[in-house]
Every structure is written in structure tokens, then in C-alpha cells.
Amino acid sequence: MLLQVDARKPDPEVLRPAAEALRDGAVVAFPTETVYGLGAVWDNDDAVREIFRVKGRPLDNPLIIHVASIKQMKTFYAEWDDVAEILIKTFCPGPFTLIMKRAEHVSSSVTAGLATVGVRLPDHPVTKTLIELTGKGIAAPSANLSGRPSPTTAEDAIEDLSGKVPWIIDAGNSVFGVESTIVSWVDGKLELLRPGGISAEEIRNVLTEHQIAIQLDDSSLDLETLETVPRAPGMKYRHYAPEAKVHILSGETNEAKLKRLSTLAGSGALGQRPAFYLSRALAKEAEWILQAQLENHYQLISFADDLHHQDAAAGLFRAFRAFDRLSVSDIWAEEQSLQHLGLAYMNRLRKASRENEGRT
Ligand code: TXA
Ligand code: MG
């Protein structure tokens, strides 16, 4: 059932049935500022296993635990130090997940047997209230069925989970639209495992500001190694892919992208029912070409020409799902630079385009 709640000032009474269901061992879909999550109380093994079953998620892919305070966060880790303190104080609450050695009492169904655990303090009044009402940390992956794009609205969550969970909490659009940044701080090594709502630049700046001489290692994001040596276990699985075939419209400049588009259109290589995900500036230019070649037989969603690529990242999963509802055959999404949120955007886009390589 759907619980509609004010995103900024949630009424605890509206959320109470969901919190009670969680306490009784049920699985509930809820909003966060990144994407919607599918949660269960972290220390109820049967409830946690139900998450894996509902999602169709492989059991060796660990879950992150969502908490309502830094104090609660610390209870899940075996140790705490200055680096953890600075990262947490700077980025929490927010789209940031820190992986460290897990405290002894943290069960293996959440961590999939790993010696580490990921914990996140979401910056969303609804998530915070729900966790407080439940009285325990909530283990949760994104609320999509395994392999689908993450849900960024309650409608997306309903599309994947209707009839499979007792409650879906609706608080409108997720602001970031892309999952949290995952950083691992284990054995003196600081690694970026998944780019997300907090950029690598922001993390590096904080290290410099505090004169911490540790490098943020992002080599596991290398596209060549991504599929073969995944560091975040989930990275090795099929991910983010819509039904349509995803292509990257690449090019150093808008002119180069337009030229490529023109060539593809001219040779009929855009697909039967193509769709486009482009920045506004490029979309404006591209429409001339598209209308000339395809008349009205295409779909277009555009995003703001923003230096930090925030809009591109925020709308990508929503565009994937919108295009799938329109049964398009091919999605052409514009390449962005790897700066700021462009890294998270390109990471999701590349994975989605790889997933359906060779699919017909
Ligand atoms: O923004 C988010 O992080 C969202 C919202 C709901 O909070 N959650 C989310 O969870 O994206 P999920 O399960 O879809 O992605 C978490 C990723 C997975 O790739 C998982 O393999 C990885 O984190 N992960 C979890 N625990 C880990 C650990 N101890 N070591 C390495 N990777 C871990
Ligand atoms: Mg996920």
C-alpha cells in the first residue's frame, strides 16, 4: 500500500504503520535523497533475506545500513579514527557511504560474509523519521528489481515492487537521482568504489584541507577492470539497464556530437524507435537534424547545461524508465566529462550501454 508523506515535514503518524511493519520483520520501500531504498531492520536475518528474494539479488552482494545519527553509525564499525571522523563530519548526512571494518556483532546476512560494512546517514527528513520510529538501522539496497535502473520516484518503485511489499512510502522525486558515493577506508587504503552524489573532487579537497596525506584511489573505477575485478561486489552484476539498447553519443565538443548524430541519422543507424537524452544546448541544435531525418518519430528528454553535470546525473534513471514506458528501441545519451557528477553519470551510462552490448 502507498503511504503519501510530506518530503520536508513528514507526519510521524503517517509513517508509523511502515515503521511497525519493519519492526515486525517486513520489507518496506522508502525514499532517500539519492534513490528509493528497499529496507528491513538490519538485525532480522529473515527480513534481510526477504530483501534479496524480492529484488532477485544474488546473496553475495552485501547491503548498506541506513542510520539516523552519527552516534548510531559508529556502533556498526570495529574502529574509528581521524580520517573516518573528517569524512563523516563533512559528508554526513548526505549521499555518502563509508565502508570500514565491521563490528563483531554485525551479522553476515547484511554484509554477505565480508569483514567490512557500509553505513549511510541519509539527508532526508522522511528517511530520518522512519529510522527513528523503527528504532534500528535499516539495511537497504536501491528499490529496483535486480538489474533495473534505480527508482527515483514512488511510481518507479511501484513499477518494480507492487504487490511484493506491504508498504511503499511516497515522498516525491529523489533530489540526487543517482546513488550514494561509496568510499572504502580499510587497512590504510582509501578507495572510491562507486562514484555518486558526492564528487571525487569534494573528497580530495577535504583531505587537502585537513592536510591528510592519503590519496583517494579511484583505480577500481577503471572501465577495463570494472567488469573483471569488481571491488564493490554489486559492480559485477548486471546494472542500471533499461530494456532499450543504450548508446553513448560521444564527442569532445557539441559540434563533434552533432556531426556524429548527423552521420548516424544519415545512415539509418539510430534504431527503429530512437530516444535521446541530451543537454538543452545540444538538444536545440540536434532537433534540426532529428526532425529532418526522423520527422516526429523519436523521443527527447533534455537536461540543464550545468557545469557540475548535476542535472544529467539526476535525470538519467528517470529518463531510462520513461523511455522504456514509451517502448523505444534505442537510447542515445550524451557523453559528459568525468568531472564532478559527470563521473557518476558516465559510470552508470557506461554500465548500461555495456549491459546490452550484443543484445538484439
Ligand atoms: O544511495 C544509495 O546508496 C542507495 C540508497 C537506497 O541508500 N542504496 C544503494 O544500495 O545504492 P545498493 O545495494 O543498490 O548498492 C550498494 C553497493 C552495492 O554495489 C554493494 O555491492 C556495495 O554497495 N557494498 C555494500 N557493502 C559493501 C562492502 N562491505 N564492501 C564493498 N562493497 C559493498
Ligand atoms: Mg542498486
The beta-strand count equals 15
How would you characterize the largest beta sheet? 11 strands, mixed
Strand order of the largest sheet: 1-8-2-3-7-4-6-5-9-10-11
* Bound ligands, named by name, code or SMILES: threonylcarbamoyladenylate, magnesium ion
Q: Give Rg in angstroms.
A: 21 Å
Identify low-pLDDT runs. Answer: none
Measured distance between first and last alpha carbons: 37 Å
Structural class: alpha/beta
Helix percentage range: 25-40%
Concise summary:
This protein has 360 residues and is α/β, with parallel strands linked by helices. It is built from 13 helices and 15 strands. Helix content is 37%, strand content 19%.
Task: Give an account of the 3D structure.
The protein has 360 residues and is an alpha/beta fold. It is built from 13 helices and 15 strands. An eleven-stranded mixed β-sheet has the order 1-8-2-3-7-4-6-5-9-10-11, sandwiched between helices. Strands 12-15-13-14 form a four-stranded parallel β-sheet, sandwiched between helices. α1 (12-23) crosses α6 (125-134), α10 (254-266) runs parallel beside α11 (280-294) and α12 packs parallel to α13. Threonylcarbamoyladenylate binds at residues 32, 34-35, 37, 61-64, 95, 97, 99, 111, 114, 116-118, 120, 140-142, 179-180, 182, 193, 232-235. The site of magnesium ion has 3 residues, from loops.
